[in-house]
Each structure stands twice: as structure tokens, then as C-alpha cells.
């Protein structure tokens, strides 16, 4: 009986060590879970905040509607590393600067969406979206 118990304890210890050594995968949503490919966005406004964080960066900007009402929009960008590889730095997103966003609206209809392209005050247009299932070819073009 002791032999079986010690084998069981060794197996338990080895299994526990293997499971504890495996890195946990981060949960990640797909584009289609939150955003609507049938509701393209093409908005211009003034930058109010930029969050340069993993797994997705965010840009917030005030948009003045035809009625004069100002709405603060938030759009999801790709990860900071992918943005840097595309030529965008957080320092490019200056508070108070104009910005144009092309992408897709959220499914819940609130003032947030998924950015595919950003056009900065200096005229540069940079691809900001990186979701594999996002229809970047259907976003409003620069």
C-alpha cells in the first residue's frame, strides 16, 4: 500500500508542478463580439485622452454633432507594440489636437468603437486596428 501511495504522491506532485508552470492565457475578445461591421464610423474631433495599454490602447476624443452637442467618444486601437510598428507613438496623440477616426461602431450603440485608421493633425494616416476578424477593407478609406 505504501508503494502505491508514494507513486500517487509523486504523480500528484509532478502534475501539480506541470500545471503551475504553464503560463495562463489571457482572455481576448473577437472584433465581432463587441463591434458591428455594418456600422462604419467616420468621425472628427479633438483628443481628450490616450491610454497606451495592453492588450488594446484607447483614444478618447470630443465630437461636436450637427446640433452642437459634444459627445466624448472612445475607440479601441491595437496593442502599443503594433501601433509603434505602424509608426504611431503615444506622443503623437496630443490632448487638444484634431483627429479623424475611421472604423466601426460598438454593437451596444454607445459612443465607442473600433478604430481602423487614425488621421493626425500633421496629416499622417496610420492603421490602428489589428483584430484578425475585423473587416478593415470595409472601413471608410483615408
Protein model, in words:
The structure is a single chain. The chain has 142 residues and is of the alpha+beta class. The protein has a single domain, classed as Nucleic acid-binding proteins (OB fold (Dihydrolipoamide Acetyltransferase, E2P)), CATH 2.40.50. A 5-stranded mixed barrel has the order 1-2-3-5-4. A hairpin with a 5-residue loop joins strand 2 and strand 3. The radius of gyration is 22 Å and the shape is elongated.
The first-level CATH class name: Mainly Beta
On the 0 to 100 scale, the average pLDDT is: 82
Query: What is the approximate shape?
Result: elongated
Secondary-structure element series: HHEEEHEEE
| CATH H-level superfamily | Nucleic acid-binding proteins
Number of strands: 6
Oligomer: single chain
CA(first)-CA(last) distance: 74 Å
Strand arrangement, largest sheet?
1-2-3-5-4
For the largest beta-sheet, the strand count, sense and barrel status come to: 5 strands, mixed, barrel
In the CATH hierarchy, the third-tier topology is known as OB fold (Dihydrolipoamide Acetyltransferase, E2P)
Roughly what percent helix? 10-25%
List keywords for this structure.
142 residues, OB fold (Dihydrolipoamide Acetyltransferase, E2P), alpha+beta, elongated, 6 strands, five-stranded mixed barrel, 3 helices, single chain
SSE map:
Layout: H1 2-21, H2 31-34, E1 35-51, E2 58-64, E3 70-76, H3 80-86, E4 98-106, E5 112-119, E6 125-127
Parallel strand pairs: 3-5
Antiparallel strand pairs: 1-2, 1-4, 2-3, 4-5, 5-6
Summarize this entry quickly.
This protein is α+β, with helices and mostly antiparallel strands and 142 residues long. The chain contains three helices and six strands; from the N terminus they run ααβββαβββ.
Amino acid at each position: 500500500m505504501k508503494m502505491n501511495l508514494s507513486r500517487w504522491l509523486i504523480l500528484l506532485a509532478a502534475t501539480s508542478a506541470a500545471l503551475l508552470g504553464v503560463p495562463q492565457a489571457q482572455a481576448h475578445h473577437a472584433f465581432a463580439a463587441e463591434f458591428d461591421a455594418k456600422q462604419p464610423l467616420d468621425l472628427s474631433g479633438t483628443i481628450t485622452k490616450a491610454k497606451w495599454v495592453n492588450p488594446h490602447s484607447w483614444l478618447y476624443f470630443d465630437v461636436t454633432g450637427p446640433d452642437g452637442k459634444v459627445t466624448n467618444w472612445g475607440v479601441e486601437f491595437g496593442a502599443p507594440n503594433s501601433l509603434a510598428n505602424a509608426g504611431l507613438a503615444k506622443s503623437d496623440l496630443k490632448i487638444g489636437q484634431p483627429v479623424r477616426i475611421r472604423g466601426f461602431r460598438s454593437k451596444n450603440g454607445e459612443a465607442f468603437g473600433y478604430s481602423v485608421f487614425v488621421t493626425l493633425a500633421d496629416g499622417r494616416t496610420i492603421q490602428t486596428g489589428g483584430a484578425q476578424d475585423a473587416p478593415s477593407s470595409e472601413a471608410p478609406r483615408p
